[in-house]
Amino acid sequence: MTTCPSCAAPIEWEVSQTVFNGRLAWSASYYCAACGDGVMVDGWDEPPDDVREALIAEDGLRRVRLDRDRQQPSRVALMSVFRRRGASLSRASELVAEVASAGLTGTFAEIELLSAQLAAVGAAVVVDAAP
Ligand SMILES: [Zn+2]
């Protein structure tokens, strides 16, 4: 909860995040019922920290893991997913180990995008609520 910069009435930011054409897109907006003022900001890829925190506060975290009961692509193929997302070689290796064990967590849209990227190299994934 915060206040309207024009009239100081309480306002609530609405945040959203989605996957569009293989990229993350986010938006944050408010409309002040007292004075009619409003703002909408949006952008691509990683949202600002406060927007991401608000998304997690609203929706919680999701988790993606490799399905241990199904055949998975090679380690190299899995690493290529994280390399394309900008991870260094050593970080990509760590992330493959994590997604194969405890899993990786993120917002709904982040995990939707990562799951799709993993599936694109043939991975069988399980997505659930983060513990
Ligand atoms: Zn206002």
Topology:
Blueprint: E1 2-3, E2 10-11, E3 14-20, E4 23-31, E5 38-44, H1 49-59, E6 62-66, H2 75-84, H3 89-100, E7 104-106, H4 108-120, E8 125-129
Antiparallel strand pairs: 1-2, 3-4, 4-5, 6-7, 6-8
Helix pairs in contact: 2-3
The structure holds zinc ion.
Written overview of the protein:
Helix 2 packs across helix 3 (about 90-100). It is elongated and about 60 Å long. The chain is built from 4 helices and 8 strands. Helix content is about 35%, strand content about 30%. It has about 130 residues and is an alpha+beta fold. The mean pLDDT is about 95. The chain has 2 domains: about 1-60, N-terminal domain of TfIIb; about 60-130, Ribosomal Protein L30, Chain: A (2-Layer Sandwich). It has a 3-stranded antiparallel sheet with strand order 3-4-5. The chain has a 3-stranded antiparallel sheet with strand order 7-6-8. The structure holds zinc ion. Zinc ion binds near residues 6, 7, 9, 32 and 34.
Share of residues in helices: 25-40%
Task: Report, as a whole number of angstroms, the end-to-end distance.
Answer: 27 Å
pLDDT < 50 stretches: none
- What's the CATH C level of the largest domain? Alpha Beta
Bound molecules: zinc ion
Structure characteristics:
single chain, 131 residues, alpha+beta, N-terminal domain of TfIIb, Ribosomal Protein L30, Chain: A, 2 domains, three-stranded antiparallel β-sheet, 4 helices, 8 strands, elongated, binds zinc ion
Can I get a quick summary?
This protein is α+β, with helices and mostly antiparallel strands and 131 residues long.
